[in-house]
Structure formats: C-alpha cells, structure tokens
C-alpha cells in the first residue's frame, strides 16, 4: 500500500509540474484525494476498484503523460538495475498481459512498452513530458508517505 500511495503522490506532483503554466488545481486536488483515499483503502473491501478509479482520474489529468513515461522508462530497466523506489513502481504495474477493461490499462501499457520495446520507444511515445526520469524520481523520493 505504501507503494500505491507514493505512486498517487507522484502522479499528483507530475500534474503540478506538467500543468505549471495552467492552474494546476486539479493536480493538487487529485493529490490530496489520492492520499486521503489511499489511507482508507487499507480498510475497504472495494480497494482495488477505488485504486483503479484514482488511476483513471490520474491518467485523464496527466495530459503530458509524465507518470506513464516514468512507468515505461522504469519498466525498460533490468530488475537488477532498479533502485528500491523503482522496484515499487514497477511492481505496481507488473502484469504480463493487458486487461483492456481495467482503468489502469494505460499504465499497464506503458509498463509493457518499456519491458518489450525499450527506453527509446518510451521516449518517442511519451515525448510530451518535459521531465527526465531523474527529475520524476527526485519527486518520488522526496514524497514521504508513511503506511498506517
């Protein structure tokens, strides 16, 4: 669950960076919603559905595809080259097949592109994101979300 909360926080941060020239309020609102809801997910039966709803909202708000780019780039790495934080992100989208009926399909697709095609394709598909993996990981590492 800690990994999920950090990913949601990262998504919110990506929105703030991606939409810095716009209002950015949707990113901040989604970030707050994700963190609050994430804590509740530990105690709810429909946790997966709520998680998918949040990721669907995240995908819709992330107009520059920064979160998907990060998932793709991390997934292109061999597991032995991943940092602990990168392993957390990669494991959240570690399916070997795509279920196109799930709200998380865009993130799962990003992971598959990284795994199967590699970094170069990640950079082509998600080129709207102006931030490097290093910058996105810096945001992720600065996020301090504790498990309840």
From TrEMBL:
Keywords: Signal. It comes from the Eukaryota. Residues 1-20 form the signal peptide. This is Uncharacterized protein. It comes from Lepeophtheirus salmonis. The lineage of its organism: Eukaryota, Metazoa, Ecdysozoa, Arthropoda, Crustacea.
């Amino acid at each position: 669950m800690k990994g999920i909360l950090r990913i949601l926080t990262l998504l919110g941060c990506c929105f703030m960076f991606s939409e810095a020239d716009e209002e950015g309020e949707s990113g901040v609102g989604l970030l707050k919603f994700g963190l609050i809801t994430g804590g509740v997910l530990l105690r709810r039966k429909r946790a997966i559905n709520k998680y998918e709803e949040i990721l669907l909202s995240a995908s819709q708000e992330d107009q520059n595809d920064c979160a998907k780019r990060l998932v793709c780039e991390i997934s292109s790495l061999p597991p032995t080259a991943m940092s602990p934080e990168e392993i957390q992100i990669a494991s959240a989208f570690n399916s070997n097949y795509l279920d196109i009926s799930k709200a998380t399909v865009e993130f799962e697709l990003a992971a598959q592109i990284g795994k199967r095609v590699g970094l170069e394709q990640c950079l082509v598909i998600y080129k709207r994101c102006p931030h490097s993996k290093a910058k996105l990981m810096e945001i992720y590492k600065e996020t301090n979300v504790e498990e309840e």
